[in-house]
Every structure is written in C-alpha cells, then in structure tokens.
Amino acid sequence: MARKLLIEHADVQGIASYDVYRKHGGYASVEKALKTMSPDEVVEEVKKSGLRGRGGAGFPTGMKWSFLAKPEGVERHLVCNADESEPGTFKDRYLMEKLPHLLIEGMITSSYALGARRSYIYIRGEFMYVLRILEKAIAEAYANGMLGKNILGSGYDLDLVVTPGGGAYICGEETALLESLEGKRGNPRMKPPFPAVKGLWGNPTVVNNVESIAAVVPIVNEGGDAYAKIGIERSTGTKLISASGNLVRPGVYEIELGLSVEEFIYGDDYCRGIANGKKLKACIPGGSSVPILPHYLVTKTAAGTDRLMTYESLADGGFASGSMLGSGGFIVFDEDQCIVRNTWNFARFYAHESCGQCSPCREGTGWMEKVLYRLEHGTGTLEDISLLEEINKKIEGNTICPLGDAAAWPVAAAIRHFRDEFEWHVKSPQEAQSRNYGLIQAPLEA
Amino acid sequence: MIKVTIDDVEIEVAPGTTILNAARQAGGDLVPPAMCYYSKLPGTGGKCRTCLVEVAAGSTADPRPMPKLVASCSTPVMDGMIVKNKTSERVHTNRGGVVEFLLVNHPLDCPICDQAGECHLQDLGYEHGSAKTRYREERRTFSPIDIGNKIKLHMNRCILCYRCVAVANQLTEKRVHGVLHRGEHAEISTYIENAIDNDFSGNMIDVCPVGALTDKTFRFKSRVWFLKPYEAECACDKCSGKAVVWMFGNEIFRVTARKDKYGEVETIEDKTAWICNDCRFDKKDPSKWNLIGPRKIDRHSVISQGKYATKNDNNPKLLS
Q: How confident is the model at residue B300, as a pLDDT?
C-alpha cells in the first residue's frame, strides 16, 4: 500500500490529544519553519511541491499564496475553508475529527508563511461536534505555546479562531465564506477584487481547503521537492478520496495521485469492487458537481488509455468524455441505480442551496429541479430533455460564482451519457418507476 | 484616458470606468440593459446578469478574449479592450436566457401593475423575451404586504435586484428590511413584520425596476400614460425638493424623483436628487409646488403618447 502523508496516524489511540500527537512527530513542521526558515522560504517550498488546491478547483496553492498582496501596515489573514458540504465529499470532516492537530499545525505553518497574525477556521454548522474537537485541540495548542504570543521563542504571534457557519453550501465559495465570516448574509462577492487583494474586512486574505493546509505539514517536513516526486506530472502528492456508493469498502482513502481508477475501485487495498457482485454503471469521480462518467469511460479514457486518479487524466476528453478530480468525492453507481433519480436529487440539492443572488442560478436551478422531478415521476415529455439542455446552457458561465456551473454540469453530463435512460423514463414511465430503486433501495428480504 | 471599443464605436474614458458606464458615455443603442445596477448606489450590480457582454479582446497588453461573458456593470475597462454587445450573437442568446429566467417567476399582471409603462422588465421582455413561456410549473406566490405605511410590496413581481436594500443601507440610518431565505425562496421582507419608517424610504419605490414596491398613495389611481409629468420644485428642508409631479388636470396624482433615461435619479447640482417622503407622499396640493415645465419624456415611451398636444399644455402657468 502506498505511503500516507496525512492520515498515517489517524487510527492511533488518543491522537486527537496534543501529547500523543507530539509523540508521533507532530508540530515538527512548526519547529522547522519558525526556527530555521523565513516565511518566503516556506512559500517557496510549497511552490516547489506543486501542491494544488484540494477543495475542488485544483488551483496551485503556492501560486495563490504568492498572489497575496502585502501592503505595509495592513493585516493579512489566512482562512481555512472547512465548510465541506459537497454531496459525496467527507474527507475534511474525517481529517479534522481524527487529526485536529494536523490542521492546526498546518494553519500555524501556513499563517507564518503568509505573515498572518489572526487566522480563521470556518467550519460548517452541521459539524458542531468537530468544532468542539477543534476548540479543545486549539486550547491544548495555546497551553503548549504553539499558539498565542511568541510561538517557540521565534517572536511570531498567531491567534487561531474557529467559527461555525450556518450550514449553507454556498458558504464554501470563498467570497461567500468571507461575507459569512464577517457576519453578513453569505452571498458571493463580485470578483475582482479577489480575496488576495481585498478579502476579510478588506484585508488581503488567502482561503484554503482543510486538506491543502494539512498538506503543507509534510511539504515543510520533507521539502517541496520530495513531495513533488509523488504523483504524476502536474498532479503531485497524495490526495484524500472519499469513496461512497455501491462499493464493497467505501470510506476515506489517501492515495498517491497517479493511481489508476481501476485499481482504486477494484484493488484490494482500496474499495474492493462493486458491492453485491453487481456491475459498475457510472461513476462521479469528484463530488456531485462534476460530470458523471458512464462505465465505459470510468477506467479508460475515450482515447483508450488507462484513466488515472490525476487532475489531468480525469479531465481527459474535456466534458465530452471526461470529468474532473474536483474535491475527491468518488461516488459509484451499480447497475440498479437510476441516473434520472440521482440527477434529480442533485438538482434538488443545488436548487435548495442556491443563494438567490443572481437570476440565472436562482431561477434556473429551481426550474431544472422541477423539470427533472417531472421526468423522474413519469409526467415528463421528450421536449423536457432538450429544455433541460437549454436551461443548462443559459446558466453555465453566466453566474457570479461557480455554483451555477456546478448545478449545470451534472445535469448536462447525465443527459449526454444517459439520454436513452431519460427517454425511457418518458416513454415507459410506469416501467421506469417500478424498476426505480433510486437512492432509497431497501433490502427486500433479510 | 484609455481607449475602448464597444460595438465598433471607439470611445475614450477615464481609467477604472466600467464597461457599462463607458457604453453610457458613448450613448445610443449600444448601452447594455441593467436591472440591478444603479450608478447612484455604490455596490449595486452584478446580480441580474442582463448586462452581460462579450469581451473580444481583453486589452492591448493582453489581447486574449475573455472566455465567459462578463457583467458589464462591474467589469472595469482596459486600454484597447474590444467589447461586443449588440453585435454579438452569443450576448443576444444569453441575454434572452436571462430574461426568460427573470420572467419564470414574474406574474403577467402588467394590466393591473402600477409600474406598467415605465417598467424595465417590460422593455427587456419586449426586446429579448420570447412570445411563449416554456415554464409549465406553478409560480412562486406571496401575498402583497405593507412594508411601510406608504409602501406596498408585491413580492411576486420582485426580481431581487437588491437595489432597495442598497437604498436602505445608504440613504437611511438603519436598514430594517432585507433578503430572507435562499434561492427561489428568497424574498424581500422586513425582519419579522417590522415596518420601514424613515424619511427617505420612498426612494425604494423609485429605484425598483419592476412593480414590486409601489406607492400606496398612487396605487390603482391611474395608468402612468394618462398622467402628465411636470418638473416641479418646492422648498423642503429635508431634501432637494426637485421632483416630477404627475398630473391629471389640476390634480397631482403622484410625485417621483427626476429620473434619467436609464431610470436613475438625476444628479442636480452635484447631488443625487433623492426626495423625501413628505414631498413624495404628502404634498399632493399643486399650490405647494412650483411647476417649472413639462418633463421631457423619450418619444418612444408610452408615457409620451398623446402628450403636450395643445398649446396650453406648454404653459404650466395656465394650469394653476
């Protein structure tokens, strides 16, 4: 099994406490960075590592950090985006729940690199118990001199605050997150100005995913070059994948990028194949907002090469025959699952979570949900399918934030690859309904 | 000054100007429509997406086209930028899409709506809307509520432009209304049936691009095109006192601020001429106003139909 950089000690008894974590090599990166490196050197290491944002967009973290404006006399902030609410993604919760000190360690090192004196962890409101774990861990870190004034005698001060949101998906969008953190309604801001120039309370701000910040710890410990050796080409390092759906062994896995998708689904070290001896029907490789892949495009690309768990390979073929790595929410469907019902379910989610600020997303997501509801419940028409495609095109790219795109892509991809199933729902609605176990399939016999 | 080309018209504007304002400086029909942007209220814009334009070249330094359509109300121009509005097919289809979205939950009650005749959504629907709707589902519905003692809110008609929120934020001391809920369920409301009680709250009616906020002293009294607008002024210690009075015979039916062709309150003597609630709601007696002359209305507007036909109409003194 491949090397684990992040969750190696996740199962150690009591690892959530400071002492046990320290015993297993914790806070080494803080010591190394604060005592031997300058902030710019840390940024340089992260740049060298080729780490790409783990929240979904895959933007190089080092580059994001170097865009941070550094005007004299203005405070800077690092904000950790722990508002993980994408359906199918649960890696950040796992990480924070098991290894709260890893995130805190990453926050200290990253804040030092960016020169932030006050950093925030914005955590999803539903994760209240995780918030308690983090608060306890932060108190321990304060007590042991890892946070507060003059950390490890280096003269560097840092305050770390963890704040819960109200449980809105939109607050995972970085500008909406900042609005929410400021105590306002979580509506995304217009860009530009980008948060790197004008973010939290008008100060330059970097917003990073939990996993990206945690990955800074091994990068500083082992050096950016060593980290960059893991993985393939521009997809470096390890990635947490939250596998769910009809798998023998779903769960959170840390993989080295470059692992083949086939190995991940069927390999003994990973998911061990499709549950109940069923066949693979489709797979969503990166959380609910990325395009769905039909079974013949999951393990092979359209060109016939093996598909790998990398940013590039999963996107191979563009949206016509590819998808995205996204946040790593790997959802697998077996042959019994209904794509129409699943698409409707996602559309319902996005219609519910749209903030309602800009018109294409506010009206479009709700409209799509209603049309899909009709198709799924046997009252749709063939024109509805082309209507869906039309609505899709009008939402995509015309919204303030990427939520509109995220709502449009899965529907577009489902129609692209499973049009016959949509048509079947229109032509023989009763048959489609009777066969439709959907997402609430219960075992018929015990 | 930097050069920018919009629909093959080259203009020079100050750095930092947005595409929409640059287009407005050029004037004519290359100006993109705007439902939520209001130049007199900083921070508005970007929400309705009707002002989307295509940027065919970003700037002289970086002539790559922008991949997405951009909101012209909030994108600053760059030197050498080439913008396509009327000339772009893509803009036309996508704007049509946005208009369709705006109309999805908008009731077709123009025949009884007080805004009809001066409604921006009507204009937009006329220009970009399709004749038929593809929306088969039920529309979201709300009951009209009194949002202040003189203002009625028809949430059904609201397109959530957030302009009235900006008015309350910027003109009044404390905002008591805002947007509740999310997505399709979002609605303008006061927090738990609070009433808006402020001297300048009436301006929310003026900035509303549709008939969502209406003047209770004027509701259902008359269609706007039966009224004759006169520029008028009065001595007011709260506001500029410069307004437009809408008359039928010798009677004042309603008072509004002076609005330009983009529906925005005019700037008079370097100040945006917002009017106070006393002028708007209570001064309906013509003797309190000094009528200056007929208000110039665009000849394409339905309001100018059959106006100022007689000689006497040109002389407001004869009216009083």
A: 74
Q: CA-CA distance, B239 to B234, in Å (whole number)?
A: 10
When pLDDT is averaged across residues B67-88 and rounded to a whole number, the result is: 90
Neighbours of B251 (CB within 10 A): 14
pLDDT in tens, A340-384: 889 999 999 999 999 989 899 999 999 999 999 988 888 889 999
Give the pLDDT of residue B28: 82
C-alpha span between B66 and B69 (Å, rounded): 7
Inter-residue contact A290 to A326 (CB < 8 Å) = yes
Query: What pTM value is reported for the model?
Result: 0.90
Taking an 8 Å cut-off on Cβ atoms, the answer to whether B101 and A362 are in contact is yes
Residue A359 and residue B160 in contact, taking contact as beta carbons nearer than 8 Å: yes
DSSP 8-state class, residue B279: I
Residue, of A234 and A445, whose pLDDT is higher = A234
A258 is written with which tokens? 């470059």
Question: For residues A59 and A206, is the Cβ–Cβ distance under 8 A?
Answer: no
pLDDT at A417 over 70: yes
Smallest CA–CA distance, residue B68 to chain A, in Å, is 6
Q: Identify the closest residue of chain A to B104 by CA–CA distance.
A: A363
- B47 in contact with A, Cβ within 8 Å: yes
pLDDT at residue number A445: 42
Q: What is the rounded CA–CA span in Å between residue A113 and residue A433?
A: 56
Q: In a mutagenesis test of the B interface, which of A359, A386, A391, A403 is the best target, namely the one with the most B β-carbons within 10 Å? A: A359
Give ∠ CA A359-A365-A370 in degrees, rounded to 5.
125
Which among B164, B282, B267 is positioned nearest to B213, based on CA atoms? B164
8 Å CB contact of A359 and B98? yes
A377 contacts chain B (CB < 8 A)? no
CA nearest A405 in B: which residue? Answer: B68
Contact B49 A366 (CB under 8 A): no
pLDDT band at A111 (very low <50, low <70, confident <90, very high): very high
ipTM, 2 decimals?
0.87
Which among B48, B178, B183 is the nearest to A365, CB-wise?
B183
Residues of A in contact with B52 (CB under 8 A): 398
d(C-alpha A402, C-alpha A388), whole Å: 19
Strands B2-6 and B81-84: parallel
Amino acid identity for residue A75 in this structure: E
Instruction: State pLDDT tens for residues A281-313.
Output: 999 998 899 999 998 888 888 888 889 999 888
Confidence of residue B318 (pLDDT cuts 50, 70, 90): very low
Which whole number is the average pLDDT over A212-218? 92
| C-alpha to C-alpha distances, A86 to A106, A174, A315, B231, nearest whole angstrom | 23, 14, 19, 56
Q: Does B153 touch chain A (CB under 8 A)?
A: no
**Count of CB atoms situated within 10 Å of the CB of A38:** 11
CA distance B233 to B286: 11
Long-range contacts of A298-303 (CB under 8 A, 24+ apart): A298/A261, A298/A265, A299/A260, A299/A261, A299/A262, A299/A265
Cβ contact A394–B160 (<8 Å)? no
Distance in angstroms (rounded) separating the CA atoms of residues B120 and B117:
9
Contact assignment for B179 to A185 by CB distance below 8 Å: yes
